[in-house]
């Protein structure tokens, strides 16, 4: 399929404007300490920060810390998603359970996960497991609520048809419930991935288990502003990558779904 | 009627009102009660000192939070939270409307906003501490720096998705810029804006707690961390409970406001569905 020239031109314009925006941001950042609006001790030059970033990228210790952050992230996300899918499917399919759990879920869900940090520290000490408690708690609800909605969203006519044709339970699950709930699940998973990353880093900052978050806290207390800003940029890039990867997975998994197919026509 | 052929519709059986209220109460409170009782049983049997029984926690709750602590710790926290959320809404809606209306501006800022939004907000606490010191302003700035994104991005999307027929009609009728904003763009974007505010509220609460755990000598987050460091387990649990209550109350209050602001929208949805 050939891309029409008008569309290509528009895409090019969009890309160059986007790059211009980023460049403008970096220029403003560079100008603020240069013009003396803020002391470079508190807001270092962007060139220094980028140089430090490049230094970090060839430092093995940095990658090890990044690795331990991402390990907590991956374990937490997997545990939370598995638990949420299983429990959400069961609760979503049984109306009695849905009614009975409603108030409990609505009370537990808004509890800010960081409120549990002290408890996790008491139970597990300064270890990865304490961080995992927080990560799992926060990302569980994102997926759980979406799965409940998704499973309950099965079209009534389709369900009655499946029943009339005597479709066995297992195939009802795979042919009816799964396709209906999948878009919801993917949305929940994308949100949970972002939340899990935020809490993995937060937990390291507050609890002090090894990882990027602790490094940030250490550079702050050491007064190393350049290192601090470089790490903030790293976490931003990390968040961006997680976002893009999960958006890509979502589009791939839901390529058959109206919401994605509709987009591609345009 | 959209009844299915072959299914005989019975009129719903009328039960007595009292019976129905009892049933819905049983559903609403049954499981929480069961869990509380189970917790109490486990807590009295188990030897772990980290799980005091519910009675001890509720006693600690009354002792800790009713009285001067409410004024010293809870109110300042809520004040900072409210200030941060209000600033996020004003900033997010204003900037979002401008960016959403100007095509080139949106394309200019999109990659930058994507990146800034992807920064985990708690990471900005050390940065804010560097720039602003340990002050109330810093905590409000931290709350805003996390809570503004969902509102901003949702506003941009909502403004962008304004019905084009209506926009063209407004242009044909030479509706002034201000009137167009007031009667067309903002109402059209309001469902998305409210969705953004809902997300922002929970982010703001989290950031309030963390910023206080980090750098504060008062506030809910500080108190909870203090109790944990001093092994005041029941008091710590009561703090967690209080935070949960704040979260629930915020969600309920927001639900009421949303229903009021978006009454017309839910009305249209209902008509469309019927």
UniProtKB/TrEMBL annotation, chain A:
Check the record and name the SUPFAM superfamilies matching this protein. MetI-like (SSF161098)
What transmembrane ranges does the database entry give?
12-32, 73-95, 107-126, 132-152, 173-206, 226-246
Pfam families per record? BPD_transp_1 (PF00528)
Q: How does it sit in the membrane?
A: Multi-pass membrane protein
**ABC transmembrane type-1 domain: residues covered:** 70-250
Q: Which UniProt keywords apply?
A: Cell membrane, Membrane, Transmembrane, Transmembrane helix, Transport
What Gene3D superfamilies does UniProt report for this protein, alphabetically?
A: MetI-like
Q: Where in the cell is it found?
A: Cell membrane
Q: What is its main location?
A: membrane
Please report which protein family the annotation says this sequence is part of: Belongs to the binding-protein-dependent transport system permease family.
Know the name of this protein?
Answer: ABC transporter permease
């Amino acid at each position: 399929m050939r891309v029409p020239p008008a569309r290509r031109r528009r895409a090019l314009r969009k890309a160059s404007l986007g790059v211009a925006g980023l460049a403008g941001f970096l220029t403003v950042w560079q100008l603020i300490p240069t013009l003396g609006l803020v002391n470079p001790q508190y807001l270092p030059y962007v060139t220094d920060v980028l140089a430090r970033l490049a230094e970090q990228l060839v430092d093995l210790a940095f990658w090890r810390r990044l690795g331990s952050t991402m390990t907590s992230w991956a374990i937490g996300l997997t545990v939370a998603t598995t638990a949420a899918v299983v429990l959400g499917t069961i609760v979503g399919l049984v109306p009695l359970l849905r009614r009975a759990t409603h108030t409990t879920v609505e009370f537990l869900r808004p509890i800010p996960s960081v409120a549990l940090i002290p408890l996790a520290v008491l139970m597990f000490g300064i270890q990865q497991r304490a961080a995992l408690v927080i990560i799992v708690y926060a990302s569980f609800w994102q997926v759980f609520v979406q799965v409940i909605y998704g499973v309950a969203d099965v079209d009534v006519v389709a369900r009655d048809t499946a029943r009339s044709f005597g479709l066995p339970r297992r195939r009802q699950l795979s042919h009816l419930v799964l396709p209906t709930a999948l878009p919801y699940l993917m949305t929940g998973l994308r949100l949970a991935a972002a939340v899990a990353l935020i809490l993995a880093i937060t937990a390291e900052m507050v609890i002090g288990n090894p990882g990027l978050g602790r490094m940030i806290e250490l550079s702050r207390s050491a007064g190393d502003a350049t290192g601090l800003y470089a790490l903030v940029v790293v976490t931003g890039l990390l968040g961006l990558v997680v976002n893009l990867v999960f958006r890509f997975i979502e589009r791939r998994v839901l390529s058959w779904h109206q919401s994605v197919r509709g987009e591609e026509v345009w | 009627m959209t009844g299915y052929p072959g299914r005989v519709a019975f009129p719903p059986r009328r039960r007595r009102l009292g019976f129905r209220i009892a049933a819905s109460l049983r559903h609403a409170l049954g499981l929480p009660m069961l869990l509380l009782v189970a917790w109490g049983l486990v807590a009295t049997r188990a030897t772990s000192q980290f799980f005091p029984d519910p009675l001890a926690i509720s006693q600690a709750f009354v002792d800790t939070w009713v009285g001067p602590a409410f004024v010293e710790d809870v109110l300042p926290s809520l004040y900072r939270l409210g200030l941060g959320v209000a600033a996020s809404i004003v900033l997010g809606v204003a900037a979002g409307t401008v960016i959403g209306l100007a095509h080139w501006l949106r394309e200019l800022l999109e990659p930058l906003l994507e990146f800034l939004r992807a920064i985990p907000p708690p990471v900005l606490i050390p940065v804010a501490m560097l720039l602003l010191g340990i002050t109330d302003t810093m905590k409000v700035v931290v709350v805003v720096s996390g809570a503004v994104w969902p509102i901003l991005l949702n506003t941009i999307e909502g403004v962008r998705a304004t019905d084009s027929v209506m926009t063209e009609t407004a242009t044909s009728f030479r509706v002034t810029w201000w009137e167009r904003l007031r009667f067309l763009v903002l109402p059209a974007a309001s469902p998305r804006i409210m969705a953004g505010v809902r997300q922002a509220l929970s982010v703001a609460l989290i950031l309030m707690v963390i910023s206080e755990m980090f750098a504060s000598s008062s506030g809910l987050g500080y108190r909870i961390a203090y109790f944990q460091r001093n092994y005041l387990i029941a008091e710590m649990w009561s703090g967690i409970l209080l935070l949960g209550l704040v979260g629930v109350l915020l969600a309920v209050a927001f639900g009421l406001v949303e229903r009021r602001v978006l009454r017309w929208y839910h009305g249209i949805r209902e008509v469309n569905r019927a």
